[in-house]
Write a structure and sequence with these properties.
eight-stranded mixed beta sheet, Neutral Protease, domain 2, 42% helix, Immunoglobulin-like, 29 helices, single chain
């Protein structure tokens, strides 16, 4: 009764004040769901403005933290119940506009704010005192205890909907707010947030860190990080720079490299956008157990520790790290300064950062091949775009659960490809002018797709409405091939043919660059090229008529277009024979990708791709292309029918042995060949040699068997059932007694072809083993990634029934765990029964979260592709 009486009392005060009062309405809330719907968010944003948070937290207890948050906001409109998002904590005290309120207004997911307790067309305040457990799955305020030295580190991860796991708030991107933080922490800790602290004062055995009122931005990019971090400092003009990592990894941190990339990026973006870096400092933290690659928290970016290299890596790995550093930096403008109003606009944040990062790497760092690296994100996009789960770049996102699945190849890769396409279409200066106008108009606010496109339209003088509809608001990828004829050694007719794939509805406007290639001195080199705009099914290219008849035509030179390139019959035949003779390494990579797309589409047998790889692969001198080819290995082998698999695996292993033997000592290529061999080694000869390298009984000139190489070798021995595998794992874990070592050990064990070990890890992964929930998601992740091994079909079958049983309990599991499990553990068996089991699950669980059903739908489709690929391979040749 107390809640009812309080609401009636406050409501009667409004009536007595002379205000016009309407009966209070309830803001609908689905309390069985953990997500926030778009309708709920819209209802709040229509009524709420001028939001600010005053947050105080005590971080001195190891098992939980306590906090006090004061939320201030202005309301408009008619009286209506509201709610604050807050999850998994305990509310000790609650007051609304200075009046004590019943803590029962908190139901475990939200704090209800009765209409009668609020002031309409006026300022309001809600004060909440609470306690909250630390998170160990990478969301909210995550806690990590370093096994090396026992030190504890904390960091926050809020995107898309986890800020309310740290403090009560209106957790949606269009209710931007200011934040005033103070934190009580152990004396040897540093506390980092979105603003720089103004004071640090001792209070007993702790220090209180006080931060000023921040700039205005969304809840998901606010952050707090704390712990005894190692720290490095630098300066980029007026901008102070800091880099943080945990103490046990500081010896591996390449701070000069981080700062060099950071300074170059800040200069490049500031000049390109004609808008200086918008915040007051720039911190970067490399943190443990991080689920993603990085996160663009305002002025306090977090990165996975995969970007701290404990062992030798390739130059491409450093380029990838530089790209991630610059991707997150681009978000300071696109995402943090100007933010989407809801998660359907996530693509613009991520696509723009992906595109701009490649541009910045190309222009502002010493690394070469940024656009070749960018091509990998486009291949990811094309794979996603041909799945039954594809969606427009600007997708409908009904709730925050659905937003979890939008961090995909469409949002990152296809959106970035569309931006590269419009950049090529408009030209650099008009593109930059549109982006600059967008920042000037919407700084520190929210914006929509229409806002962005209208800025580009105004700057370019072109109506981009049709482009927006065709590229951003429709799903699917078109195919493109050349059709030409020759007479007397000259081209007599030349056209581009655009085709719709199955399920695609439209042909789109494109602009591409077409190249004609000729064999010259043993190399395929480009002899002529032409930029071509096309939108119809057939587009004549008269400019090529009269040119020498080419040996090969490629219809997307330099990769400006987002399209599947289908090689014409003559070019395909030439590629099979002379692909290794293509002079341009980027073009070689593109041709290989085109062949793999044909395999995926079921028009080119997997064994023929492997034959081409075995013919040309050892001559490959470009590390990015070689990495791409090795990345296709497992899928190609899985697409082979059983009667071909053994012979091709033996050929591939010999191919990798020869490639490693021929690679120059100390080169990136040598490292790539070694890692590929360690991943594929099956024979007793290869395993014995790897074990000798591990024990130091044999040397490989130029290649140090450092810690990462040691775990790769142990993984190979474990995967093939070496009798000493478990002893080697245990001994190596003593040698590498870090959390990284522990994760490597788990991944190695999970590969072992031993039914008892396999079942033990399956029980841990599915959290059915007694004590299985004691394993953090970060520890289970490597076991999930390594559990399924090609050739272990009988052991893989053990996971069929448990997989569907676990995802059936999705509504009672944390979304980060169940989403990861659903993606990683779909049984990769090329069997019709898997298709039937997936279909039955989907039919029985139509109301389940998208982050569960999407991986099941994708897994079912990939199984169908595998079945088709095996049938095609059987129909086209005999086993080698």
């Amino acid at each position: 009764m107390k809640k009812t009486i309080l609401a009636l009392f406050c409501f009667s005060l409004l009536a007595c004040s002379g205000q016009k009062v309407e009966p209070p309405q309830k803001l609908a809330r689905n309390l069985s769901a953990r997500s926030l719907t778009r309708e709920e968010a819209l209802a709040r944003s229509e009524r709420i403005s001028r939001v600010s948070y005053e947050i105080g937290v005590d971080l001195n207890r190891e098992e939980a933290f306590s906090g006090k948050t004061v939320v201030r906001f202005t309301l408009r409109g008619s009286p209506q119940d509201l709610f604050l998002d807050f999850m998994e904590g305990k509310v000790a005290k609650l007051s609304i506009n200075g009046q004590a309120a019943d803590t029962a207004l908190f139901d475990g997911q939200i704090i209800r704010l009765p209409a009668g307790s609020l002031r309409w067309d006026s300022a309001n305040s809600v004060e909440v005192e609470y306690e909250h457990p630390y998170n160990h799955s990478g969301n909210g305020l995550h806690q990590f205890k370093d096994p090396v030295d026992g030190r504890i580190y904390l960091y926050t991860q809020f995107e898309p909907f986890s800020a309310h796991r740290f403090f009560p708030c209106f957790d949606q991107p269009d209710l931007k707010a200011t934040y005033e933080l103070n934190a009580l922490a152990p004396k040897d800790w540093k506390v980092i947030s979105s603003a720089r602290e103004v004071s640090v004062k001792t209070e007993g055995k702790a220090n209180r860190w006080v931060f000023p009122v921040s700039d205005r931005f969304s809840t998901y990019i606010f952050s707090l990080h704390a712990g005894p971090f190692a720290e490095w400092k630098d300066q980029a003009g007026p901008i102070p720079l800091r880099l943080f990592a945990r103490q046990s990894l500081k010896q591996y941190v390449d701070a000069p490299e981080w700062f060099a990339i950071t300074k170059g990026g800040l200069k490049f973006f500031g000049e390109t956008f004609a808008y200086p870096y918008p915040f007051h400092k720039y911190d970067q933290l490399v943190v443990p157990d991080f689920n993603a690659g990085a996160m663009e928290n305002v002025a306090a970016v977090t990165f996975t520790e995969r970007y701290i290299f404990r062992s030798k890596v390739t130059t491409d790995a450093r380029l990838s790290r530089a790209s991630t550093i610059l991707h997150e930096m681009a978000h300071m403008w696109f995402g943090d300064l100007v933010t989407m109003d809801w998660w359907n606009g996530l693509w613009l944040n991520e696509s723009f950062a992906t595109f701009m990062a490649s541009w910045a790497v190309d222009k502002a760092t010493p690394y070469k091949g940024a656009w070749q690296e960018f091509n990998g994100s486009k291949e990811w996009a094309m794979w996603e775009d041909q799945l039954v789960t594809t969606h427009p770049i600007e997708a409908e996102i009904p709730d925050t659960d659905a937003s979890l699945t939008s961090f995909d190849g469409i949002t990152y890769g296809k959106g970035a490809a569309a931006l590269k396409q419009i950049f090529f279409l408009l030209g650099e200066e008009k593109f930059k002018a549109g982006v600059r106008a967008y920042f000037q108009k919407h700084a520190f606010g929210n914006a929509t797709l229409e806002d962005f496109v209208s800025s580009l339209s105004a700057a370019s003088g072109q109506d981009l409405t049709a482009w927006q509809e065709d590229w951003l608001q429709s799903a699917g990828v078109n195919s493109l091939r050349a059709q030409f004829s020759c007479a007397e050694g000259k081209i007599s007719a030349f056209s581009l043919l655009q085709e719709k794939d199955e399920g695609d509805k439209i042909l789109r406007p494109h602009r591409t660059k077409v190249g004609l290639f000729y064999l010259k001195d043993g190399k395929l080199v480009m002899g002529a090229s032409q930029a071509v705009a096309y939108a119809k099914a057939e587009t004549p290219v008269p400019g090529f008529v009269g040119s020498a008849c080419p040996d090969l035509v490629f219809t997307n030179v330099e990769d400006h277009d987002y399209v599947k390139v289908r090689l014409d019959e003559k070019s395909l035949a030439q590629a099979k024979i002379n692909l290794g003779q293509v002079a341009d390494p980027f073009l070689r990579q593109q041709i290989w990708n085109s062949l793999m797309q044909m395999v995926t589409d079921g028009v080119y047998p997997a064994h023929e791709f492997l034959d081409t790889l075995l013919l040309h692969g050892q001559a490959e001198t470009d590390s990015k292309t070689l990495k791409t080819l090795f990345g296709y290995r497992e899928r190609l082998l899985r697409y082979l029918p059983a009667e071909k698999l053994g012979a091709y695996r033996a050929k591939l292993e010999t191919f990798l042995q020869d490639g490693l033997r021929q690679a120059t000592g100390g080169s990136d290529l040598q490292l790539l060949w070694f890692r590929a061999l360690a991943s594929e080694a099956q024979s007793a000869e290869s395993i014995a040699r790897l074990e000798k390298l591990l024990r130091g009984q044999e040397k490989l000139a130029g290649l140090a068997i450092d810690q990462d190489r040691r775990w790769e070798i142990i993984g190979a021995i474990a995967r093939t059932g070496g009798v000493r595998a478990k002893d080697l794992i245990d001994a190596e874990l003593k040698r590498d007694a870090t959390d990284n070592g522990r994760k490597e050990a788990f991944g190695a064990e999970a590969q072992m072809p031993d039914p008892v070990t396999k079942q033990r890890w399956l029980s841990r992964i599915t959290r059915t083993e007694s004590g299985g929930r004691e394993y953090k998601l970060a520890e289970l992740r490597p076991a999930m990634q390594n559990f399924y091994v090609l050739g272990q079909d009988a052991l893989t079958q053990m996971a069929e029934a448990p997989y569907f049983a676990v995802i059936a309990r999705a509504k009672t599991e944390e979304e980060e765990y169940i989403g990861r499990f659903a993606r990683a553990m779909f049984p990769p068996l090329c069997e019709e029964r898997i298709v039937k089991q997936a279909s039955a699950f989907l039919a029985a669980h139509e109301d389940y979260p998208v982050y569960v059903t999407k991986p099941v739908r994708q897994g079912r489709q990939e199984t169908e592709r595998c079945l088709r690929a095996r049938a095609l391979s059987r129909a086209n040749s005999k086993a080698p």
